[in-house]
Design a protein that fits this description.
There is one protein chain. With 433 residues, the chain is α+β, with helices and mostly antiparallel strands. It is built from 17 helices and 14 strands. The chain has two domains: 210 residues, 3-Layer(aba) Sandwich (D-Maltodextrin-Binding Protein, domain 2); 207 residues, D-Maltodextrin-Binding Protein, domain 2 (3-Layer(aba) Sandwich). Strands 1, 2, 3, 4, 7, 8, 9, 12, 13 and 14 form a ten-stranded mixed beta sheet that branches. A two-stranded antiparallel ribbon has the order 5-6. A two-stranded antiparallel ribbon has the order 10-11. Helix 1 packs antiparallel against helix 12, helix 8 crosses helix 9 and helix 16 packs antiparallel against helix 17. The longest helix has 16 residues. The N terminus is likely disordered.
Length: 433
């Protein structure tokens, strides 16, 4: 495992040649005997909790004065991307912004990228989880990862018990019997209580992420790079068996919204899945680790527990989905030296551990995840290690692609193969040329 300061020193002492910032002299500002070095003001934008960041910055500043000049501004998720895009375009934005992994391709032209000659792939992958490879671009490291929000399966203890299940499913194929037994339907086949929220898009939180995970677990790549490093859609790529893994995943997912199936358990007339779970009318909810406090606020009396995301039976490789957050340096930053330094300091072992605790989600560093932790945090950390990602050209546009792909099947507008072909073409149209 890399030592905290040795990695930082190497990068800081060499990377500013790549930034080509005239007139700036690089100092080994991360060494302990130079903690009084002045970095200048550094502004960070993000959607993560401001109180958590402020508390960690205040604590870090007690032993390192450089953190006193760091400010963090929180934005609502609904407005963040628009505000950030406008600010980056006009060079009036932050020095650092918290970038979610699936926005890497979209924001790449607006970033200072750390070249691989400075931070090698080997150094990076030895330090951070496999899923953090989402920040490895063709040119170099697009962002320094610090936190990951893994998907988990929330389960209602009471509903499982009354349905005859002592434990939640471990494998996706168990959901067939589970959906049939845990779902309560009226004489007219109306769903009164659902076993699992799968099959639709609009009223299922994280439908795109769930289906994408199923596809990745089945062996699909969703998008891939050609021999010339050009990004291309790959939903209809077929395996040696002749079947497209993405088609198998789409069939499994949409079957739960098919009224003729015995495991029919969801339709688009039902409330949103997280709300349904909170109200006690959904047995299983696939969500993110960060949602646990929200679920408790929805219903403080709900008896629920957390389990790993299901896997495909007999598959040796286990995979999970998650949202990985990294510190990205804006090209328009007035203080790139300070931004780079703070990015690496905050992704060090101790700051990353403190941010993880404050935010309530795992760190991306392998050494931090290796530290034993109590309760649900251990499950969250193990799920974080399993996170895998795909290259998303434009999250808002691919949301529409996944919605149409699902609803073409559930509405009967297209069969599985046709829906997948349409989605593949639409996915290609989201890729800038």
């Amino acid at each position: 495992m890399l030592k905290n300061f040795s990695l930082f020193q190497v990068i800081l002492m060499s990377s500013f040649g790549a930034f080509a910032i005239a007139g700036l002299v690089i100092f080994a500002v991360v060494t302990s005997n130079q903690q009084s070095a002045t970095l200048g003001d550094v502004e960070i934008w993000g959607t993560l909790d401001q109180a958590a960041f402020t508390a960690v910055m205040r604590q870090l500043a007690e032993t390192d004065s450089r953190f006193r000049s760091v400010t963090y501004v929180e934005f609502e998720e609904s407005e963040y991307e628009e505000r950030l895009t406008e600010a980056l375009a006009s060079a009036s934005g932050p020095d650092i912004f918290v970038m979610r992994h699936d926005y890497t391709e979209r924001h790449l032209p607006k970033l200072w990228v750390i070249p691989y000659e400075t931070l090698s792939v080997e150094q990076y992958t030895a330090t951070f989880i496999d899923g953090a490879a989402a920040f490895l671009s063709r040119e170099g490291v697009a962002a320094i990862p610090f936190a990951v929000d893994p998907m988990v399966m929330y389960w209602n203890r009471d509903v499982l018990a009354t349905s005859g299940f002592a434990q939640p499913p471990q494998y996706w194929d168990e959901l067939f019997d589970f959906g049939a037994d845990a779902t309560k339907r009226s004489l007219t086949n109306a769903i009164e209580r659902s076993g699992v929220a799968l099959g639709e898009y609009r009223n299922i939180n994280h439908a795109k992420d769930i289906l994408a995970l199923l596809m990745l677990q089945a062996g699909a790549t969703i998008t891939s790079r050609s021999s010339t490093s050009e990004l291309a859609p790959s939903l209809i790529v077929r395996a040696a068996t002749g079947q497209a893994p993405a088609e198998s995943a789409l069939r499994f997912y949409t079957d739960f919204a098919n009224p003729v199936k015995t495991h029919y358990s969801w339709n688009r007339s039902l409330p949103e899945s997280r709300q349904s779970f909170g109200s006690g009318n959904l047995a299983l909810y696939f969500g993110y680790a960060s949602e646990e406090p929200l679920i408790r606020r929805i219903n403080p009396n709900l008896s629920f527990a957390v389990a790993p995301m299901p896997q495909i039976r007999n598959e040796e490789t286990m995979m999970n989905a998650g949202r990985i957050y990294g510190f990205a340096i804006a090209k328009g930053s007035d203080n790139p030296q300070g931004a780079l330094t703070i990015s690496f300091l905050l992704s060090g072992s101790e700051p990353a551990s403190q941010l993880s605790t404050a935010l309530g989600i795992p760190a991306t560093r392998r050494d931090v995840l290796a530290i034993p932790v109590p309760g649900r945090d251990e499950l969250f950390n193990k799920q974080a290690l399993l996170v895998r990602t795909w290259i998303d050209p434009n999250p808002s546009q691919t949301d529409d692609v996944f919605r149409d792909m699902i609803e073409n099947v559930t509405s009967g507008a297209a069969n599985l193969a046709e829906s997948l072909q349409r989605a593949d073409r639409a996915l290609g149209e989201t890729i800038p040329r």
